[in-house]
Amino acid sequence: MKIAGYERGGRPSYGFVVGDRIIDHTDVPGVTAASVRELIAARLPDAAALQGIDATIGLDEVTLLPPVQPAKLLCAGVNFPTHRKEVSLSASRPEHPTIFSRYIDSTVGHDVPIVKGPAIEEFDYEGELAVIIGKRAWNVSESEAAEYVFGYSCFNDATAREWQRHSGQWIPGKNFYRSGSFGPYIVTADEVADLGNSTLVTRVNGEVRQSAPIKDMLFSVAELIAYVTTFTPLEPGDVIAAGTPGGVGRFMDPPALLNVGDVVEVEIDGVGLLRNTVAAQA
Q1: What is the DSSP letter of 83?
Q2: Cβ contact 108:178 at 8 Å
Q3: Strand, helix or coil at 144?
Q4: Is the peptide bond before 184 cis (omega within 30 degrees of 0)?
Q5: Which domains, and CATH codes, for the chain?
Q6: Phi/psi of residue 19, each to 5°?
C-alpha cells in the first residue's frame, strides 16, 4: 500500500496511491484517522477494499507533502563506508552510530522545490532511506525491530555544508527551512520484498552521483531502531533517515555542489523516486 500526504485547493489531506491517482481517505469506509500519523497508529484499510473505490484525484492535480509529519525525525550520519572514506574517516564500522535530529519543516514533498537560502554557500545533496515507525517503540531489541517498521520512503538530507562545520554538532547545517525533501509517499513494509538488495541512487541533472545497495549500511535498520529506542521512545509515524552513501558533491574532485535550477532525484528500488528542483529563497 502507498500512502501520500497532499494539498489540493489549499486543503491538506492524505490518501492511498493507486497508479497515478489518489483515493482520498474520506472516501474509504471505516477510515476515521484525520492524519497519516493517526492512520499509522490505527488500523490500515484492507487493500482489497480499495479496489472497489474510484481514485478520483490525479497526482498531477495535487501538491505532495512530506508523507507523514513525525514528532521525531532522526538521522544517521556517516552510515555507509564509502561516505566515511570520502570524509576522511575510517571506513570500518564505529562502535556506535552517529545520530542527529532534523525538523520536519526543513523538508518538502516530491516535486516541490528545495530552497537554497541566501546564507548557504555550499548546498549539498544526501540521498537516504527513510524508515517510518509503526507502533510505540521503546527499548526494542534488534531481533524484534522489524515488527516496528510501518514502511519506507525516500529522503534527501540536503545540507548547508559550511553551517554543518560551524561546530561539532550538525543541527544548523541540516535544518535550513525547506532545504531537504521526503517522499513521494510511504510504501508499507509488506510491499518491499528485499530491502537489503535494493539500490539507493541519487542523480543530479540526470547524472548518477550516488549508488549503493542498502545492505552496505554499517548499522542496519534494525540496529538503528534498537540504538535510538534505548535513549528515546519512538511513536507511530516517527522517522529515521538511515544515512547516505559516498558521492556527495562536497567531496567530489572538483566539488559539485548544488546550484539554483539543479534537479535532484533520490530513487530506491521498490520504494520510489523523490525529485526536487533547487530554488532560491523567495
Answers
A1: H
A2: yes
A3: helix
A4: yes
A5: 2-65 (no CATH), 73-280 (3.90.850.10)
A6: 65, -125
How open is the CA angle 42-231-124, to the nearest 5 degrees? 85
Q: Encode the chain (282 residues) as per-residue pLDDT tens digits.
A: 999 999 999 999 999 999 999 999 999 998 999 999 999 999 898 888 888 898 989 999 999 999 999 999 999 999 999 999 999 999 889 999 999 999 999 999 999 999 999 999 999 999 999 999 999 999 999 999 999 999 999 999 999 999 999 998 999 999 999 999 999 999 999 999 889 899 999 999 999 999 999 999 999 999 999 999 999 999 999 999 999 999 999 999 999 999 999 999 999 999 999 999 999 998
Q: What is the pTM of this model?
A: 0.96
- The string of DSSP codes covering 242-254 is ----S--GGGSSS
HSE on the CB side for 171, CA within 13 Å?
7
